[in-house]
Amino acid sequence: MSIDAGQITLIGITLFAATVNGALGYGFSSLTVPVALIFYSNRILNPALVLVEVALNSYVLVVNRNSIPKVWKRVLPIVCGLIPGIIGGSYVLSTASPEWIKLITYLVVLPLILLQAAGVRRPIRSERLIGVPFGAGVGICYSVTTISGPPLALLFNNQGFVKGEFRAALGLIRVVESTVTATAYYLLGVYSTAGTGLLPTIVPSVAIGIPIGAYIIRRMNAETFRRICMSFDAWVVGFGLSKVLIDLRLMTSPTGYVVWLTVILIDLTLLYGFFMRGSEFATVASDVNVPEGSPGLLPQKAPTVTPDDLST
């Protein structure tokens, strides 16, 4: 059986995304979707990814089950908002133009990636008040794009979830959103032979990539690895956005690729700032001879985790 360029690309990007997910606990969909959308529409790609994520998210939840009692009350409003959002988003996916859905996907994902890259933190006091509308927005985003990691990462980092709680909260939300979305797709007739036919291409990459990522992360700095992967994601999304703007004739070629160039320049600026801050911290530690692990004059890490725990 011959393999076309789309299948080869899907094998490569899902292997890379699964490796990142195995290393950081997050990033599978947010890395896979922007690249795969160049070859496949959301209507074909989403059902296969959602089925994979039902299993992947269930595994994350089981591993972090001890922290569930600490977080379920905090995430319950978000879970309640997910269901109507998913129903609405699934309907949009089943009826809207594939090219316009691609455009929406890129426009939603890109600013969230750049906000994470910039290290934005905006703690919200009325956590319960924003839970249901936030959950509805996440549900729409996930059911249309299979991506919900960036907004969830921003919220949970802002709200001070420690590592175990962070993973458990993500596990709860992602199990609900992937399971409900898979069910909504079935009821709306979104599944197709073309979509489910992608599973044999995706599943082996996931099975291989996750243990590779777990091995890699034990041998390098997790935050540096995460930040480099985020840059890759931003560049790919920027390229996809430029291409779909040209395909929809909203911009002409090569003018449309100015968007891609702008994204690259923004990300390089943020990346430079990230590594410069790392160098400054290292210099302070060296100059004042602060022992490793001592509070000293080093900037202290917040009790939250980086957005390392999202499987999409």
From TrEMBL:
Domain of life: Bacteria
Membrane topology classification: Multi-pass membrane protein
Keywords: Cell membrane, Membrane, Transmembrane, Transmembrane helix, Transport
Subcellular location: Cell membrane
One Pfam short name: TauE
TM stretches of this protein: 12-38, 44-63, 75-94, 100-120, 132-156, 197-216, 228-246, 258-275
Family membership noted in the UniProt record: Belongs to the 4-toluene sulfonate uptake permease (TSUP) (TC 2.A.102) family.
Protein name: Probable membrane transporter protein
Organism: Candidatus Methylomirabilis lanthanidiphila
